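Exercise 7b. Backbone tokens:
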């Protein structure tokens, strides 16, 4: 009985110290400037997962992993309901106009909403697959939207960008990586 009473005094203190430690680690991460974007992908350097996706109803025939070999390309995971996807879309259009092959994986979206999104903002994608249940994006290790992958001509994932692609990302990461892979 005495042991149980003593333990009950220490338990709240241990819990409080644990929470303080977690909070301190979180603050240190913020101060260091690291973010979720800095989390490395286990997929880098590995072959793309094998998949075959149907098209968005009324837009093409979908696409599969087979088309991602032979030329450096981007795979962009997006959805019409994703506000950061709206932000990055003009940069994807800019890349497509420069001749970059971009393939889209539309994540858990209604065909009508996806069509409206592309009609309004333009379609930068060579092909789009509809991942209606989210299985393919799980295989790619996606956990936020949008996410963009650079695939080399041999079908290996060379880079992953978490979040919307912005102008700085194009200039300092995406375009230099594509150029280096095309040499």
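Sequence design result:
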């Amino acid at each position: 009985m005495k042991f149980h009473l003593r333990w009950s005094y220490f338990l709240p203190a241990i819990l409080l110290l644990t929470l303080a430690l977690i909070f301190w680690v979180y603050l240190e991460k913020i101060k260091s400037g690291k973010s979720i974007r800095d989390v490395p992908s286990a997929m880098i350097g590995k072959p793309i997962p094998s998949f075959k996706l149907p098209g968005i109803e009324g837009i093409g025939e979908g696409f599969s992993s087979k088309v991602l070999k032979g030329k450096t390309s981007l795979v962009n995971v997006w959805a019409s309901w994703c506000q950061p996807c709206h932000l990055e879309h003009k940069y994807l259009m800019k890349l497509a106009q420069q001749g970059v092959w971009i393939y889209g994986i539309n994540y858990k979206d209604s065909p009508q909403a996806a069509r409206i999104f592309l009609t309004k903002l333009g379609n930068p994608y060579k092909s789009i697959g509809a991942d209606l249940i989210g299985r393919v994006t799980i295989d790619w290790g996606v956990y936020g939207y949008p996410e963009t992958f650079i695939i080399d001509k041999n079908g290996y994932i060379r880079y992953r960008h978490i979040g919307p692609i912005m102008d700085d990302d194009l200039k300092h990461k995406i375009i230099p990586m594509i150029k280096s892979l095309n040499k």
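Instructor comment: Residues 1-34 form one domain. The chain has five helices and seven strands.
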